[in-house]
Amino acid sequence: MVLIGLNSVKLGVDTYLQVYDKETTVRKVSDLIDYFFNIAFAIECFFKCISLGLIMDRGSYLRDGWNQLDFFIVVTSLMDMILGFFITLDIGFFKILRLLRTLRPLRVISHNVAMKMIVAALFESVGAIFNVLIVVLVVWLMFAILAINLLSGKSFYCSTDIYTHSTKFSCNTNGGSWETYDSNWDNII
Is the pTM of this model over 0.70? Predict the structure, then answer.
């Protein structure tokens, strides 16, 4: 947990280090710290695979969804680190691998039972939230239809003088054009 917290702080600090050149000491130290975290998380993953088994038995490391997320984050971080040694170009694929480092703080969830329970409850409630969203949209639609029936065609103004000409005839006779406000009641949207 301490390593995950420190890594999260390091990822936050990295956003301020982007202004420095890659050859500066600050960026090199940041890269070394990143290598340390990659290796530490890889060692943790390795020991979990040894102690729990990789995939064959019930309760194996990769049978748990949270461990699959951990494994994915560790593997992508290692790929980024290894490919960074050999390829110095900024290709889109490698930028995506570096972007996946931001998923590392999610590893806190897999180490905290209470957080797992909260996230599981959120995912289980998505269906109920969707049902509530549908009810809210139906109520919104009812009020939109009411507003169209009561206020349709009443959101106009004169292009020359908004406050003097209040009718289309008055506006057109004085050289203006009768226009609709962008926000009006003429359609549901």
Answer: no
